[in-house]
């Protein structure tokens, strides 16, 4: 839509259509949606699993500190791989994403459910706090879209359904 024309009728990807309509939370593959993916990382730089590992395998510039590049944003949320989410690091990162989105209103940022991965050992209070913070980030930045991962893994279905309900996808 860089030329001002709406091509949503010409695409088969429903996520692209929803983004053009201004929808702020969708279910899909963050790497197959038009925009800059925000990749959760650990500060140790191990990137042993998840989006950071996939992003690195795809050749995206993934760093162990908050780094914004046109092709990806590295967003630390924990000290080391395998550690629980560190609230101080998480809050600092969300603040930086907010500032980045506000200073680049013409760019579309794709936000995964930061700190809300399945199997988390965090308390419900910690998870609820992160949900409120992420909702606030999305609500205050029309150019930030939450991308809940789609999966055919039946073990992840309840987690994805819960996230879709919470974020109204």
Short description:
By secondary structure, the chain is an alpha/beta fold. Helix content is 35%, strand content 17%.
Any idea of the CATH class? Alpha Beta
User: Biggest β-sheet: count, sense, barrel?
Assistant: 6 strands, mixed
- Approximate helicity band: 25-40%
The unreliable regions are 1-13, 15-20
CATH topology: Leucine Aminopeptidase, subunit E, domain 1
Q: Please give the count of helices.
A: 5
- Work out the strand percent: 15-25%
Named at the architecture level, the CATH assignment is 3-Layer(aba) Sandwich
CATH superfamily: Leucine Aminopeptidase, subunit E, domain 1
Q: Specify Rg, calculated over alpha carbons.
A: 15 Å
Q: What's the N-to-C terminus distance? A: 23 Å
**Structural shape:** globular
Q: Going across the major beta sheet, what is the strand order?
A: 1-6-5-2-4-3
Please report the total strand number as a whole number. Answer: 6
| Count of discrete domains | 1
Structural class designation:
alpha/beta
Return the string of H and E elements.
HEEHEEHEHEH
Arithmetic mean of pLDDT: 84
Describe this structure in words.
With 169 residues, the chain is of the alpha/beta class. The chain is built from five helices and six strands, in the order H-E-E-H-E-E-H-E-H-E-H. The chain has a six-stranded mixed beta sheet with strand order 1-6-5-2-4-3, with helices on both faces. Helix 4 (124-140) links the parallel strand 5 and strand 6 (144-149). It is globular. Residues 1-13 and 15-20 have low confidence and may be disordered.
């Amino acid at each position: 839509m860089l030329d001002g024309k709406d091509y949503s009728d010409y695409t088969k990807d429903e996520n692209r259509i929803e983004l053009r309509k201004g929808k702020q939370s969708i279910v899909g593959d963050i790497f197959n949606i038009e925009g800059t993916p925000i990749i959760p990382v650990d500060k140790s730089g191990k990137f042993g699993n998840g989006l950071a590992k996939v992003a690195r395998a795809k050749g995206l510039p993934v760093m162990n500190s908050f780094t914004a590049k046109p092709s990806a944003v590295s967003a630390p949320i924990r000290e080391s791989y395998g550690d629980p989410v560190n609230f101080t690091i998480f809050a600092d990162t969300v603040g930086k994403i907010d500032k980045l989105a506000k200073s680049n209103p013409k760019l579309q940022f794709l936000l995964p459910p930061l700190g809300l991965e399945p199997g988390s050992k965090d308390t419900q209070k910690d998870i609820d706090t992160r949900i409120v913070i992420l909702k606030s980030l999305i609500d205050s930045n029309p150019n930030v879209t939450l991308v809940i991962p789609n999966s055919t893994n039946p073990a992840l279905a309840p987690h994805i359904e819960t996230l879709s309900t919470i974020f109204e996808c």
